[in-house]
Amino acid sequence: MKKYNVFKVLLIALFVAIICSFLIPQSQIGYTGIEKGLINPITFVDSISNGLTSFSVFISSFIYILSIGIFYAVLKKTDKYDDVINNTAAKFKNKKLFIVISVLIFGLLTAVIGEIFALLFLVPAFIDIAKKLGYNSKQAILSTVGAIIIGSTGSLYTNYANQILKTTVSSNIVVKLIILAIYLLALILFVILGSKPVDTKLEKKKVAKGLPISIAFDVILVLLIVGMVPWNAYFGFEGFTDFHNALVDFKLFKVSLFNAVLGTTLVAFGEWTIYSLTVLILVVSVVLAIIYRIKVDGLLESISQGIRKSLPYAMILIIANTILVGVYNSGFFITVIDSVGKMKDSILSSVTLSGLSALVYPDYTYASQFTLSTLAAVISKTAIFTTLAVIFQVVYSLVLLVSPTSVLLLMALRYEQVSYKDWFKYIYKFFLGLLIVLLVIAMIIGGKYVKTISYVVLAVLVVILALLFVLTGNKKTAKPSKKLVKKEVKKEVTKKKTPKKTAKKKNNKKK
Question: How many C-beta neighbours within 10 Å does residue 107 have?
Fold first, then answer.
């Protein structure tokens, strides 16, 4: 088993969840509040059943991942993709500019769209460009998938959280935007200041018919933005919906021409889902195959190859959410929420439970639904709900940077063959820094709900982070010195040996 095998990480996480289900009793929300019950363990048979449930629930995302695999298989079949990536990278004489653009595209669009998987189709291409520019795998992952995760901390559209906590899109929007701006800036600085890109000496290549590939990415991205941004929820704009209804209502001989040509599943812009995006990517793939004159056999081969290569990534989604289904059915996490949620310090308890929720519920929609509904039943102070909505969203998303059940992260680690251990070593200080920033902001907006223990925890985290910087700084300065000493010793030894060799050569020549 290879060291970067993320399935090993997922199976360990599943095993931990099973153990917890044997130790912690279940609870459920009743008419009188949280009602505790007996131990409801997750058995082996349950895990298989939970896996099937996970597949049926997340089948749209499953197929979306496969469609991305097909899209890139078709791109590779054209024999132009690598040259297009090379020429795109060659345009960035200032390599730092690419990191800035990458982080802002993934971060800001995710915040506006509110769907964490939407921009996944761009990730392989951006990672390939970053690698061409000389950045290593971890830096490439952080500037793409990391930016998506950070963007979700400031997501403006959080439907379930708004319904449960009775908040709106505008609730604490200023705080969200401030946190998003700080986090994105910190991410850019962390990647740029902590990297020394290798000089890859890129040169532009002459590419015939490379333009259709660039246009394909642009078309998908533009339609994704127009289709998935909830215009009505943000601005009350219903123009796209009215236009779509007008097209559907236009009939000839009592038959809707729009539905007859495009079908009934195509929805209006602003109401697109992952399913809509999947259809778009598959259509673009077929169009590219026609443009590049890929025969039917070649297209079918690309489809087969794309599915085969992307299937492990789709299985990461299913296995991770098998943990979600198992934990929910077991009911033990409701007991955890009930116990921790009753702490006097509501800010600290909210931060703790939000982080734990990211570990056991890898999908934000279900996590917000399951966790916040229980928290709302436990916490009697409704005035803190707007603050709780911000804390949950930010902490949950932030923990996805290090969570062993974070689907996007595990996909990226597999794609770049980076072990979870190496990733954690790379990211943990950055994660702690962002967590400290969140605690400070939460304590400011939380005000009267903050207790002494929150200040103690904040102080401890600051001290830990400072010590980590000092200790790792000493290690970095100590290691090179040992290597330099070894090199100098080797040089001295070779210098002493070389005169003898040259003298022997001279004697041989004389003979």
Answer: 27
